[in-house]
Amino acid sequence: MLKNDLLDQWDRENFFHPSTHLAQHARGDSPSRVIKTASGVYIEDRDGHKLLDAFAGLYCVNAGYGRQEITDAIAAQAKELAYYHSYVGHGTEASITLSKMILDRAPANMSKVYFGLGGSDANETNIKLIWYYNNILGRPEKKKIISRWRGYHGSGLVTGSLTGLELFHKKFDLPLANVLHTQAPYYFRREDLGQSEAEFVAHCVTSLEEMIAREGADTIAAFIGEPVLGTGGIVPPPAGYWPAIQEVLKKHDILLVVDEVVTGFGRLGSMFGSDHYGLEADIITIAKGLTSAYAPLSGSIIGEKLWKVLEQGTDENGPIGHGWTYSAHPICAAAGVANLKVIEALDLMNNARDLGAYLKGALADALGDHPHVGDVRGEGLLCAVEFVKDKDDRIFFDTSEKIGPQISAALLAQSQVIARAMPQGDILGFAPPFCLTHAEADIVVAATVQAVGAVLG
Ligand code: PMP
């Protein structure tokens, strides 16, 4: 085994870490954290510290760590057939089985699954297919995509553009043309504090309608959104938001892409967020929970309406000019099949729903009256606590104070519990594996109370 010092040195010298302050890391100001093993909701670092992972990695290890059914399936597939491609009609039993399992569980009117590796490339696929679709339909000007401020859809060129967070645009020359951002359905951060929830929803709808009128509906191809805003702050939509938005989209013949990378396969306590909120998607993006991150796999579930036109397009133009080498990689597909079986055999989706309600309730009970806790919110096993400087007048802390990161760091240092400081605002996010128990939820809540006390008094 490598000595810690050498590992730290090699890490700093060689490893370009994503979403990391590169200069600080290279200077050694932020410690390398090397994870060695994991089981259930716990991960263990190289020094044997056990950390309770209340964010399931990057809200992806839904089945929990160390599931032998999944690792066995991966090993068996690697032995039998580690790889073959899926171009020109090729496939494997694992990839075909997984596409059938996904469609059997998907909302109505879904037709086919296109596999990718991660959420970003799946959303790139979606936008390309939507542009292809409108070209085949003879409306080449209908190409713009509307996303929301604070939406997160990836960090590629188009998907980083769709992501409505400044950090992902700044200095990268993004967003690209053809990407527009509209109002986030974030009631707690409404500008007009006097607005009721219903008035705020009406404001979101009006903003969207004004944007469509300004740009011209014949230039707008699609609207993309997560059922619950994730990385942008873990924000469930206000009541009535989705039905009202869907009505506008239908009126203007604008496709709906529902990004279920976080919500797909049970995190909200329903198989899909689309089921949860009654969304009628044209395309659904899936990733993370599809394999519980045991292997990288994503998918675009394509609705029947699009599929028909894509088929027509290939009759007119030849094979679809879009493919990844690792599309439907058999090892990843085998992980997906085993993962969905584990989730269902152990009834983990219902556990996610029940424990989510318990965790949110316990956080609200313990912290709701704290003078600097402005909001405790969540849906299913996805919740957040948002901190404010002044609760009565809802004044936020200055970002330079880094209150969210400080609380997350205190939580880790004092209690070995991981919750995520969300990237924009002082928001602590919780999205543990679905196998969380009541006792583990209690540990998370007690640790959070202690960390909040240490930073904010
Ligand atoms: N969409 C959503 C809703 C996500 O949360 C993420 C990742 N957090 C992505 C897309 C991008 O996925 P990936 O990082 O696998 O490319």
TrEMBL record:
Molecular-function GO terms, alphabetical: pyridoxal phosphate binding; transaminase activity
Keyword field contains NADP: no
The enzyme's E.C. designation: 2.6.1.-
Entry's Gene Ontology cellular component terms: cytosol
Keyword Transferase in record: yes
Keyword set, alphabetical order: Aminotransferase, Pyridoxal phosphate, Transferase
Pfam families: Aminotran_3
Gene3D superfamilies in alphabetical order: Aspartate Aminotransferase, domain 1, Type I PLP-dependent aspartate aminotransferase-like (Major domain)
Cofactor(s) listed in the protein's UniProt record: pyridoxal 5'-phosphate
Stated family: Belongs to the class-III pyridoxal-phosphate-dependent aminotransferase family.
Protein name (record): Aminotransferase class-III
Organism: Planktomarina temperata RCA23
High-level lineage: Bacteria, Pseudomonadati, Pseudomonadota, Alphaproteobacteria, Rhodobacterales
